[in-house]
Write a structure and sequence with these properties.
- The complex is a heterotrimer of chains A (160), B (758) and C (289).
- By secondary structure, chain A is an alpha+beta fold.
- Chain A contains 5 helices and 5 strands; from the N terminus they run ββαβββαααα.
- A 5-stranded mixed beta sheet of chain A has the order 2-1-5-3-4, sandwiched between helices.
- In chain A, helix 2 packs across helix 5 (142-155).
- Chain B has a domain at 7-30 and 461-606: Aldehyde oxidase/xanthine dehydrogenase, molybdopterin binding domain (Aldehyde Oxidoreductase, domain 4).
- In chain B, strand 27 (628-639), helix 18 (646-665) and strand 28 form a beta-alpha-beta unit.
- Chain B is built from 20 helices and 28 strands.
- In chain B, the strands form 7 sheets. Chain B has a 7-stranded mixed beta sheet, with helices on both faces. A 5-stranded mixed beta sheet of chain B has the order 9-17-16-15-10. Chain B has a 4-stranded mixed beta sheet with strand order 18-26-27-28, with helices on both faces.
- In chain B, helix 11 (379-397) runs parallel beside helix 19, helix 14 packs parallel to helix 15 and helix 18 crosses helix 19 (723-735).
- The chains are: A alpha+beta (160), B alpha+beta (758), C alpha+beta (289).
- Chains A and B meet through helix 2, helix 3, helix 4 and helix 5 of A and helix 1 and helix 18 of B.
Chain lengths: 160, 758, 289
């Protein structure tokens, strides 16, 4: 079967891969590129565990075919921290105990970062609706929202 | 350290450090079940029944085997036939033969999604294609989904060897009713005769799935020498090992199970679905096999917990004193016997001191997936009934729902219906704390209502192992056998740090594989912080003893004259002040010269887990034109004994509560007329999303458990018990309509509101 | 073994050629939020996937003399960022942004939502009520039809095998004209509409409705245009009597099914409720113009 050759940028690095036309970007990231931080919780865009950004826009990597990545700039959870320096969203998730099992966490962090880059000071309602596509079964979302607001404050330069 | 009144003296326990496994989880590096690889790995897929009930006439695997890239195809013929034997490996009752047949159907398929064959191939897409090429010839049989219909005469009988246990005389005909249990005390008839008011209602609940976000996943290697390695996500690596050994006829010593990080379990990962299949495929293919379910498989083939019918009769005096209480709980077991009807019956009246009471549990099989444990198995179902009835009684008698409960509350010395006499319980304290909470002062508007409900869970102890080793630099490695599903590594390290008098960051807590730590019962029953915590404390106390011994040796004084505090050895008694204190690092550096490595293990069969109680208060707003329910505020009060890491204790309460809200409002298994699951996706199996919810105010009440070194009680399960009744009671307060069937979804609530003419 | 071919043409003609000459079934890929799921579940297995997003004009929004031109595959998130279109057509733009999650919004488009041909597509009643048209490209060039003429039954459209939607034209709104869209779902997000309702009204200076279009989703095999509901509004202010007539007309138009998402009775009643609530929003928006 003929594979498609794709060239794109992942977390700032130029990346090439070969994929089947019906492989999703999530499959490519996890199975071919070793980027297993993006998780498959549903494969149908209903859980958000595979959240990535494509040219800066938040999406589910399970809802995008590998060949569609051609020429795109993709951001995954593996690119959120800078070296060993955690992004404020990551450090606030830790500080606020906003994770239990941690499986939905990569998707939530990617989605929260996208939220705060667009809306630096979201209301609780805005944050909850933005994150409605990220299912978390452990926390009841309470501490996640606390972490989101704390990260927003930190990113705005207010003392967290 | 056993003096639990010394809360103020605690330096680590009760604080909120960052969890030791946290960074891996926020950067995407944590390895979950589907993330691990092995050299030469191939990929497995399952073939599942499209029928609810059918006899397997023939399976033809030739076409699948012929597909290029296919390395192995297995059916039940490749698995040993297992004799009927009760298993005590997981949470809740299970029979090894039934579990084997549940993994891979042998003669009959018993539900839509039942596995009939499995394949392994060099890629996932080839494996999936091969699965479609397996030809199964079925003789479709009549099926039954509902538990009441399954009990009726003439219902299709699933098993010809199931005769109702627990009834006298023993039935002569097989049926779908597997078992009946009864707990009773006092004189029910007299109790009802003494009542001024009797309420009698039948409640119905739908099966709900644990809905952990991580689908089941494993990778398994069966080596040519018979040595097996399994890396998987589960609630117990020793459970997986025991099941794989038994179901495949392998010695336990030949299997090593390595726990991956687990992406949620809630009881649903306390048994096996994939691991024995992956091992059997690996044995046949000679290659490691990875198997990962997709979400559809998870809904069709695993969990859920029971749906059921709960019949409640409650009698009370005008002043609110309960004189008699009766409940019959009929639960779906799924395709094989073993619903949580026992704990459902035991828990449903446990909040109350009732002189005359009875609770009956009935276990019924039907053509649904075999139920699995789900957070406080059974208790939420029965308690939806009993706490709805108590609310209705309070309403009828014009009493405040909290006062009604205080009047009848179980206290220290109360003999529970299921046997034990309660000690050190904090039920009344939760009611009082709820009453005092500011949320109860909030004014309610039109179509808004407030509901109260309470709940109970036993919490358990059991077998746990831990080991602690002092490193050369004075830091430590703590290994325990309990998979960490919600932050338990943090609490284990905190307890050890407290005893050692050091900072928690100096201890690296690890979840050991089955070859590196002693046997540990699975993570379930809210047992880890209690039981594994005791093993950790035992190991830590032993390390402290050794550290004192080493200091004594260095100083050449008696060990009794060495005191351990704040992470250092101090000379005490007559020797006080004679030597400079020796820190952990000082002693570690001299370990080789003072007797070698400093290590200790803890191994316990923990008894005396403190029972847990919670009181929940919820405010809702109902849209009477659509039946939509909005949760406005939620207060969840719980006696937690002692919170080791309060953030993760609150997290357990908040998470359990929200699962309960989902159970109350929208979650359910929906079947088509031909017995197929119609909503096997997160799109139509509707778990709560962030925008559905308000803040969940978790309130910790601490009535310490004297059996635990720091007073801890289990906390994870109680919070899912009250929400369904609390929400139903709030809806009743808002609309005047009493909902007796879950979920209270918009079409059902709208129909009830319209029928009541409200 | 299933293995489709993927093509990403850069011109309309190339795309039409690929669709016309495909061996076996072909499918157009816009945002993919339905198509990829259906391929994965095995419900659809197109032999050819034609990704139209590299064709100029399929993504983006332009205001022209004849209306707002919205590229067929423009994602909902981008539509939501277009202040001009959102101000002109709040109902249409809010509706498309109700589809799925924020993540789905990064991909999901009008064309995908319409061509999936589910009666419950959130963006369709809004487009219909607003009088939007679909520009369809095919072998014989482009043709323009009202949006409501695209779906013909659940899962089927009126497009020929060689055709795809290139863009939408939403008329310019002028004077006291405004729209609204509401849907009912069991949760607050992430559900398929149990009922959806789009309303567009034009008022005179006294608040009397002079023109109206009412559209209902998820209550019939395709999205409905409910003329009787529009008639209930035209010539009237939004008083209790008008609302009651509107409610009744909406309910009378319903021909729903009972399924896992709602019963016939529930869908019918809620259609009436939503018609009233949506009309109230449209009226108040129009009055404010």
């Amino acid at each position: 079967m003929a594979k498609t050759h794709v060239t794109c940028t992942i977390n700032g690095e130029e990346t090439e891969f070969l994929c089947d036309p019906n492989q999703t970007v999530l499959d490519v990231l996890r199975d071919d590129l070793g980027l297993t931080g993006s998780k498959e919780g549903c494969g149908s865009g209903d859980c958000g565990a595979c959240s990535i950004t494509v040219d800066g826009r938040l999406t589910c990597s399970c809802l995008m075919l590998g060949p569609e990545a051609e020429g795109k700039s993709i951001g995954t959870i593996e690119g959120v921290a800078t070296g060993d320096h955690l992004h404020p969203v990551q450090s606030q998730f830790l500080k606020h105990a906003a994770l239990q099992c941690g499986f939905c966490t990569p998707g939530l962090i990617v989605a929260t970062k996208a939220l705060l880059e667009k809306h630096p000071n979201p209301t609780d309602e805005e944050a909850r609706y933005w994150l409605a596509g990220n299912l978390c079964r452990c926390t009841g979302y309470d501490k996640i929202l606390a972490a989101v607001h704390a990260a927003a404050a930190e990113m705005r330069g207010e003392s967290a | 350290m056993n003096d639990i009144s010394l809360k103020d003296a605690l330096k680590v326990v009760g604080t909120r450090p960052v969890r030791p496994d946290g960074v891996d989880k926020v950067v995407g590096r944590a390895q979950f079940g589907g993330d691990a690889t092995m050299p030469g790995m191939i990929f497995g897929a399952t073939v599942r029944s499209p029928h609810a009930h059918a006899r397997i006439k023939k399976i033809n695997t030739a076409k699948a085997e012929a597909l290029k890239g296919v390395k192995a195809v297995i059916t039940a013929a490749d698995m040993p036939e297992i004799v009927s034997e009760e298993a005590f490996v997981g949470e809740g009752p299970m029979n090894f033969r039934d579990l084997s047949n549940n993994l891979m159907a042998r003669d009959k398929v018993l539900y839509d999604g039942h596995v009939v064959a499995a394949v392994a191939a060099s890629s996932m897409s080839i494996a999936k294609a091969a699965a479609e090429l397996v030809e199964v010839e079925y003789e479709v049989l009549p099926h039954v989904i509902d538990e009441i219909e399954a009990m009726a005469d003439g219902a299709p009988v699933l098993h010809d060897d199931v005769f109702t246990a627990g009834v006298d005389p023993k039935p002569t005909k097989p049926s779908n009713v597997a078992k009946r249990v009864e707990f009773a005390k006092g004189d029910l008839a007299a109790g009802f005769a003494a009542a001024d008011k009797i309420i009698e209602r039948t409640y119905k609940t739908a099966p709900v799935h644990q809905a952990y976000i991580e689908p089941h996943a494993c990778i398994a290697a069966y080596n040519a020498d018979g040595q097996c390695t399994v890396i998987c996500s589960s609630q117990g690596q020793f459970m997986v090992r025991a099941y794989c050994a038994k179901l495949l006829g392998i010695d336990i010593s030949d299997i090593r199970v390595v726990p991956a990080e687990i992406g949620g379990g809630f009881g649903g990962k306390t048994l096996v679905y994939l691991e024995p299949l992956a091992l059997a495929l690996s044995r046949k293919a000679g290659r490691p096999v990875r198997m990962v379910m997709d979400r559809v498989d998870v809904f069709r083939g695993t969990g859920p917990t029971s749906g059921g019918t709960v019949k409640v009769k409650l009698g009370a005096k005008k002043d609110g004193t309960i004189t008699a209480a009766d409940a019959e709980i009929i639960l779906q077991a799924g395709a094989y016997p073993g619903s949580p009807m026992g704990p459902a019956a035991m828990c449903c009246w446990a909040m109350y001191d009732i002189p005359n009471a009875r609770a009956v549990g009935v276990d019924v099989v039907s053509n649904r997936p075999k139920v699995a444990a789900y957070r406080a198995p059974g208790a939420p179902i029965s308690t939806f009934g009993t706490e709805s009835a108590v609310d209705e009684m309070a309403r009828e008698l014009g009493l405040d729902p909290i006062e009604m409960r205080l009047k009848n509350a179980a206290k220290n010395g109360t003999k529970a219906l299921y046997g034990p006499t309660f000690q050190n319980i904090g039920y009344v304290e939760t009611l009082e704390a709820a009453k005092a909470h500011p949320n109860l002062q909030a004014k309610l508007g039109p179509n808004q209502g407030r509901g109260v409900a309470t709940g109970f869970w036993f919490n358990i102890g059991g077998e746990s192992s831990a080991s602690l080793a002092v490193n050369e630099d004075g830091t430590l490695v703590l290994v325990s056998g309990s998979p960490d599903i919600g932050g338990s590594r943090a609490s284990m390290a905190m307890m050890a740090a407290e005893i050692l008098g050091i900072e928690v960051e100096h201890i690296r807590p690890i979840v050991g594989d089955t070859a590196s730590v002693g046997f540990t019962f699975l993570t379930g029953g809210s047992r880890v912080t209690f039981a594994t915590g005791m093993a950790v404390c035992e190991a830590t106390n032993e390390v402290v003893k050794q550290l004192r011994g080493r200091a004594a040796k260095i100083w050449e004084i008696d060990v009794e004259a060495v005191e351990w505090r704040d992470g250092s050895a101090y000379p005490a008694g007559d020797n006080a002040g004679k030597f400079e204190p020796l820190s952990l690092a000082d002693i570690a550096a001299k370990a080789a010269r003072t007797g070698g490595p400093i290590t200790a293990k803890g191994a316990v069969n923990a008894q005396g887990a403190g029972p847990g109680f919670g009181t929940h208060v919820v405010d809702v707003e109902v849209d009477p034109e659509t039946g939509h329910v909005k949760v406005l505020r939620y207060t969840a009060v719980q006696d937690v004994g002692r919170a080791i890491h309060p953030s993760y204790v609150e997290g357990q309460i908040q998470g359990g509560t929200v699962q309960g809200i989902g159970w109350a409002l929208n979650e359910e298994y929906i079947y088509t007329k031909d017995g197929r699951l119609d909503n096997a996706s997160f799109l139509d199996y509707r778990v709560p999303v962030a925008s559905d919810l308000p803040a969940i105010d978790a309130v910790l009440v601490e009535v310490p458990n004297p059996r635990h070194p720091f007073g801890a009680k289990g906390v994870g399960e109680v919070p899912i018990v009250p929400p369904m009744a609390a929400v139903a009671n709030a809806i009743c307060a808002a609309t005047g309509v009493r909902m007796t069937s879950l979920p209270m979804s918009p079409p059902k609530l709208k129909a009830a509101i319209d029928a009541a003419g409200k | 073994m299933y293995s489709p071919t993927y093509a990403a043409p850069t011109t309309v003609d190339e795309a039409v050629g690929l669709l016309a000459n495909a061996s076996g079934s072909a499918r157009v890929l816009s945002g993919g939020t339905d198509l990829i799921i259906q391929m994965r579940s095995g419900r659809l297995r197109p032999q050819t996937i034609v990704d139209i997003k590299n064709i100029a004009g399929t993504i983006g929004i332009r205001e022209e003399a004849d209306g707002w031109h919205v590229g067929a595959a423009t994602p909902g998130a981008e539509i939501g960022e277009n202040a001009g279109l959102c101000a002109a057509w709040p109902g249409v733009t809010e509706a498309v942004q109700l589809i799925g999650s924020t993540q789905v919004q990064g991909r999901a488009s009008f064309a995908g939502n319409l061509c999936n041909a589910s009666p419950a597509g959130d963006s369709v009643p809004g487009l219909v009520a607003a009088g939007a048209k679909a520009v369809i490209a095919g072998k014989n060039g482009k043709r323009t039809i009202p949006v409501e003429q695209v779906p013909v039954s659940p899962g089927r459209t009126s497009l020929a095998a060689d055709e795809f939607i290139y863009e939408f034209i939403i008329p310019k709104s002028s004077g006291k004209t405004a729209d609204a869209y509401l849907r009912f779902i069991p949760r607050t997000e992430m559900d398929i509409a149990v009922v959806g309702c789009g309303v567009c009204v034009t008022l005179d200076n006294n608040g009397v409705c002079t023109a109206a279009k009412v559209s209902l989703g998820a209550v019939a095999p395709t999205v409905l245009v409910v003329d009787a509901a529009a008639k209930a509004l035209i010539g009237n202010k939004l008083d209790d009597a008008t609302l009651a007539k509107l409610d009744a007309a909406a309910q009378a138009a319903c021909n729903p099914i009972s399924d896992k998402r709602g019963t016939i009775e529930f869908r019918t009643k809620v259609a009436g409720v939503l018609a009233r609530r949506t009309a109230a929003i449209a009226f108040s928006r129009a009055a404010a113009r």
